[in-house]
Structures are given as structure tokens and as C-alpha cells.
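input
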Amino acid sequence: MAVRDTAKYPWIFGVLLDMVASNDVNTRVKKHRTALRAAGLRPIQIWVPDTRSSGFAEEARRQCAIVAAADAGDCDLGGVHGRCHV
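output
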């Protein structure tokens, strides 16, 4: 394209620049993932609780209380695990 075409097709140059930048990132990501696979790793997707949700703190406190009560109940076993009568 000649320089005069930039006035007629300005969007082409923005798209081409985005493609070049995107391609560079894609190449780096692909190279990084290949190196990780070569190191014996594999990609997985995991779902974790959303700590920003409105009920997260309350649910965490509830579960902690259950665990604490269970730990306190372990002493009722008469020290079977060797942890109660310290």
C-alpha cells in the first residue's frame, strides 16, 4: 500500500499492528507453555471459591468453627493420637 492509502483505509494499519502485537504475545505464550510441558508439567483448569463474594467470609468462619470443634473433640478419644494430653 502506498502512503496515500492510509487516509483511505486507516483501520487496516490499526488491525495489522494489533495482529503483529498479538502474534508476538501468542508466540511467547506458546514458547512458555512448550517449556513447561518439556519440564513435565501439564495445564489444568481448576475452580476455586470466589473470595470476593458476599457470603465467603461467613462460610469460611462456619467451616473453621466445624474444624475447631472436631479438633477439640479429638481429645475425647483419650489421647489416641498422642496430641491431647500435652
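quick obs: Residues 10-38 form the longest helix (29 residues).
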